[in-house]
Amino acid sequence: MSHPATAAPAAPHAHGPPQSFLRKYVFSLDHKVIGKQYLGLALVAVCTGMALSWLMRLHLANPDLAIPGLGKLWPNGAPGGVMTPEFYLSLMTMHGTIMVFFVLTTAPFAGFGNFVLPIQIGAEDMAFPRFNMMSFWVTFLAFLVLVSAFFVPAGPPISGWTAYAPLSAVGKDAGPGQGTGQLLWAISIGIFCVGQLLGSLNFIATTLDLRTKGMTLARLPYSTWAWFITSVIGLIAFSVLLPACILLILDHVAGTSFFIPAGLVISDTLQPHAGGSPLLWQHLFWFFGHPEVYIAILPGFGIVSQILPVFARKPLLGPRVLIACMIAIGFLSYAVWGHHMFLSGMNPFSATLFSVPTLIITIPATIITLLWIGSLYGGKLHFTTAMLFCIGFVSVFVSGGISGFFLAQPSIDVYLHGTYFVVGHFHFVMGVAAMFGIFAGTYYWFPKMFGRMMNETLGKVHFALTFIGVYAIFMPMHYLGLHGDVRRYSAFTDEYMKGSIPLHRFITVAALFTGVVQLLFLYNLVRSRFRGAPASDNPWRATTLEWTTSSPPPHDNFGGHHPVVTQGPNEYGATGQAEDYVMQTAPERRPGA
Amino acid sequence: MSAQVERHSVTTPARTGVWVGIAAIVLMVAAFTGALVVRRTQSDWIHFRLPPIIYVNTLVLLVSSATLERARGGGAVTPQRRWLSITLGLGLLFVVGQVLAWSNLVNQGLFLATSPSSAFFYVLTALHGLHLLGGVAALAYVLGRTRQAADRGAAGALDAATLYWHFLAVLWLYLLLLLTLQL
User: Fold this and answer.
1) How confident is the model at residue B10 (pLDDT cuts 50, 70, 90)?
2) CB A439 within 8 A of CB A389
3) Which of A54, A416, B46, B104 is most buried per CB count within 10 Å?
4) What does the CA dihedral A361, A363, A366, A367 come to, rounded to 10 degrees?
């Protein structure tokens, strides 16, 4: 990285360029390095999570299959390489936890947000660089603690990423992995909360206080808006999950009974607890858990809203409506957590109370989708890989969103909630959509991060095969759910269920295929990092501040000066001048004026 | 679109950071309060009298807020380090007092797992105590920075630390009220 000698930081929060290797690459205070560290962690986590899903899919396709090496690694969980139902559940738990927390939260929010947000607002760094560094290393520690659950004798927990009490609270009587494994899970997620709270605090203070001259809220790029709203949601959500984890840990180690009811007999053992409320865990968890869905997806909204106009060469339709809708989604996300609990024996009137805001939240989401589609209409579309993933994002988000209409209604959800229908729904709307946002962001900002272009041909092949692959995996799951295939079952071997095994095999093949396709992405990533064509400052002809500085940016982002902003981020399709866009720092008047 | 040209900060990042931190702590306490309200409806909830020493502790904490204001001397540029040290000492005294309150409960046979009421007492006081130790660290940091008279950043740091310290006093009053009414 280049460091101009004159780039002495002026603001009191800033810090000088690092000298030692440790400060430069490991315990770095630079938001750009921390952003890359988060993305690296997410990459390791997503490979781990995907490998776990492969093991599950292989088992679902053939429950008698002996997977080579598995028996050696986990002699208890997979004797002779054939996994036990409990081991299947522990894979499912770890897959969900790793993906939701360490991929869908870290990459789109902490990763891209850290790298891009300060540059987009014209700041030299985050408001609190030390907190920022702590945020990453605390998150990294949380990941290590979680993964260590694989290496304790009884293995990882089996209670799912939602860790429902009381089975998550009573300890080893509740099954293999529910002792030490579940405790490690609770500690890991507690630590993770601390890391994300530090991150959210930084994002909020930075966006409010460190904007450069002229960067009014109305001129804030949409991705920055999305990260800012996400950080507010995150601050609230993780502030609630942390106490829940503390109480769960105390139930485990201190003998308290916050979540364990009286007279509970598990594995023929009367539990020495009394009076706790298992439902309390569900409420606390989902009060965090539903907003978590938006923590995963809102940065994707921002990334797509940022990238679409660049490659449509046309201003985004209704930018203020977009921001208002994102804020509305943020508010509503705190009124709908009960829709995850329709099966908890909830009073039908309460269920209606949660159902109505759930249906209302589709209105701002639909408006945003229509704004995207409207922005494409009549544009000069450039189908770069980043653009394709944005369009793919809209597609999978709509596909996943439509099944949400069904699930939002308690009378239908009661039948579908325990089935693959829900698995298909949330993988589309939260998992794949957020992943497409991550891919779009990677192809778009890679030149800024590393100063080199990614290979577009490989990228387009990656997109096309991934797009087909994810539909082949998750679309049939809706049918399986309607057919009655219960999720969390490790095998469908009884007479009634046998008929769905061919479809499960199809999904397994599609999952393996889609996974292999990701090797193209990894190859492209590594090759482009070292051999990619050099990137100019502004290869996409975009308007926002990160494209006014060099690729990669210097340590203080703008080489010792503060950019002055005079334009909004949406000035595309200008006529009557050399370029069809106006940079945010351009001195000229607005186009068409 | 307004043609605003000055830098947009209406406040310092440190102050904003403390406000955001306060929001996070309030939400955490709200979650614990919710759990407490749900949990106390069960029959195993034991009512017990709070250890009397926590009223002394309360007084100590309130006095520390006053001494902190005294240290700031009504907006003087450099804070009075003596009063700052006294504030810091009172903060530590409060923590010691809370530990004494715990040993009082232990002597009564009320442990963490005895009853959800005692559990919440320990959890909430520990939560507050840990945050207070964070405040003590912040004051120590400010004290270190005021050693050099020319350190202009110290004023901002003291400003932020003061906001946090007063918040902890208010938070303690809330927790005391909650514990008094519910235990």
Assistant:
1) low
2) yes
3) A416
4) -120
Residues with Cβ within 8 Å of residue A109, at least 6 apart in sequence: A199, A227, A230, A231, A234, A295, A296, A299
Contacts of A202 in chain B (CB under 8 A): 17
Instruction: Tally Cβ neighbours within 10 Å of residue A379.
Output: 17
- CA A117, distance to chain mean position in Å, is 17
Q: Tell me, yes or no, if A584 comes closer than 8 A to chain B by beta carbon.
A: no
Q: Which chain B residues are Cβ-neighbours of A213 within 8 angstroms?
A: 5-7
Phi-psi category of residue A418: left, alpha or beta, with phi > 0 → left and psi -120 to 50 → alpha = alpha
Question: Is A19 exposed, middle or buried (CB count within 10 Å of its CB: 0-12, 13-18, 19+)?
Answer: exposed
Exposure string for A79-107, b = 16+ CB within 10 A, e = fewer: eebbbbebbbbbbbbbbbbbbbbbbbbbb
A546 DSSP 8-state letter = G
Whether A276 has its CB under 8 Å from any CB of chain B: the answer is yes
Rounded to the nearest 10°, the torsion over CA A72, A75, A77, A82 is: 60
**Any residues with CB less than 8 A from the CB of A402 and at least 6 apart, and which?**
none
Q: Are the CB atoms for A99 and A426 separated by under 8 Å?
A: no
Give the 3-state secondary structure of residue A581. strand
Looking at the complex, report in whole angstroms how far the Cα of residue A440 sits from the nearest Cα belonging to chain B.
30
ipTM: 0.90
Q: Provide block-wise average pLDDT over 10 residues at a time, chain A (593 residues).
A: 36 64 90 97 98 97 93 91 95 98 97 97 95 97 97 94 94 93 98 97 96 95 98 97 97 93 92 89 96 96 97 95 97 94 90 94 96 95 97 97 94 94 96 98 98 97 98 97 94 88 97 97 97 96 96 93 93 86 80 46
Contact by Cβ (8 Å): A183, A229: no
- CA–CA distance, A425 with A403 (Å, rounded to integer): 6
pLDDT in tens, B23-77: 999 999 999 999 999 898 888 888 999 999 999 999 999 999 999 999 887 656 6
